[in-house]
C-alpha cells in the first residue's frame, strides 16, 4: 500500500442533509468538487466534522464516502475518522484517522441538577 502524502490541506467538510434529514448526495458532489479544486488539498476527512457519522448506519456511511470519492474523481484520499470503538471502518474509505472516542452530550433533562 502506498503511503498517503498529507502535506498540505486536508479539510473536514460537513455532511450536508436535506430538510427531511436525509443525506444530500447532490450537495456532497458540489462540496467535494469545490474543495478538491483548490491547489494544496491532499484529501478529505469525511463523517468526522460534527459527529454526524455516529448517527448514520454503516450503509449510509459507505454511501457518503462513495459520494465524496466520486466528487473528487478518485484523485484524493477519503479519510474516515475512527474512534477506539469496535464499529468497523467502511470498506471504501482510503484510510482511517484514529481519534479519541466521541462524546455525546447528555440531554437537557439528564443534565439538570436534582433539586433539594
Give a structural overview:
It is a single chain. With 116 residues, the protein is α/β, with parallel strands linked by helices. Helices cover 26% and strands 9% of the residues. It contains 3 helices and 3 strands, in the order H-E-H-E-E-H. Helix 1 packs across helix 2. The chain is globular and about 35 Å long. The mean pLDDT is 77.
Task: Give a brief outline of the structure.
The protein has 116 residues and is of the alpha/beta class. The protein contains three helices and three strands, in the order αβαββα. The protein has a three-stranded parallel sheet.
Give the key terms.
single chain; 116 residues; alpha/beta; three-stranded parallel β-sheet; 3 helices; 3 strands; 26% helix; globular
- Helix and strand run: HEHEEH
Strand content: 5-15%
Ends distance: 61 Å
Order the strands across the largest sheet as they lie in space: 1-2-3
Class by SSE composition:
alpha/beta
The average pLDDT value, as a whole number, equals 77
Model regions low in confidence, pLDDT < 50 over at least 5 residues = none
DSSP strand tally: 3
What's the arrangement of secondary structure elements?
Elements: H1 25-36, E1 44-45, H2 58-71, E2 78-82, E3 95-98, H3 108-111
Parallel strand pairs: 1-2, 2-3
Helix pairs in contact: 1-2
Amino acid at each position: 500500500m502506498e503511503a498517503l502524502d498529507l502535506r498540505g490541506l486536508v479539510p473536514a467538510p460537513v455532511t450536508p442533509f436535506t430538510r427531511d434529514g436525509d443525506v444530500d448526495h447532490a450537495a456532497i458532489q458540489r462540496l467535494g468538487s469545490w474543495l478538491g479544486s483548490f491547489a494544496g488539498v491532499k484529501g478529505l476527512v469525511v463523517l468526522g466534522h460534527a459527529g454526524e457519522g455516529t448517527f448514520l448506519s454503516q450503509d449510509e456511511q459507505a454511501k457518503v464516502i462513495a459520494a465524496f470519492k466520486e466528487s473528487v474523481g478518485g484523485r484524493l484520499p477519503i479519510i474516515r475518522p475512527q474512534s477506539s470503538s469496535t464499529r468497523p471502518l467502511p470498506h471504501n474509505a482510503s484510510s482511517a484517522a484514529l481519534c479519541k472516542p466521541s462524546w455525546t452530550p447528555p440531554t437537557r433533562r439528564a443534565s439538570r441538577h436534582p433539586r433539594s
